[in-house]
Amino acid sequence: MKSNSEAPRRMQHPLHPFLAHFPMGLLMISSLWDLLGLWQGESMWWNFAFWSITVGLIFAVLALFAGIMDYVKIPQGGPAEQTAMRHMMIMIVAVLLYIGSFMVRYRDPFVTGNMLVIAVMLSATGLIVLLVGGWYGGELVYRHGIGSSDRQIQMQEEQH
Question: CA 36, CA 67: separation in Å to the nearest integer?
């Protein structure tokens, strides 16, 4: 039996979940660097945050394309499609917030004053939105079986 997603795969796994962990991890860790920068006042932490956001956004673009390829394979009109649309829209908002933070930091990762407050607030808000979007991504996998084998989906349906 074929799986419910025929999106590009490597070793029989969908690419989107594989790629999504990199931007989520990098973007989330940038908030830790921001907190350490606020606490210690050392420019090294702002540099770490800037590069975590930069690389996270690059991987987010790759994850977005893989996610769109998975999305078009989801049966239209069902609850999985609704959840996928919520996931995608929320993650786009999160990425836009991090792009805003990147733009504030672009000329100089060691921002100060009001620009520092704006950069950190954009990242902090992005983190909250990212976590909500990640939860919806988990719903797609664990509740709707997106990216799972047909046998796993059948087992989930038998339990409900």
Answer: 32
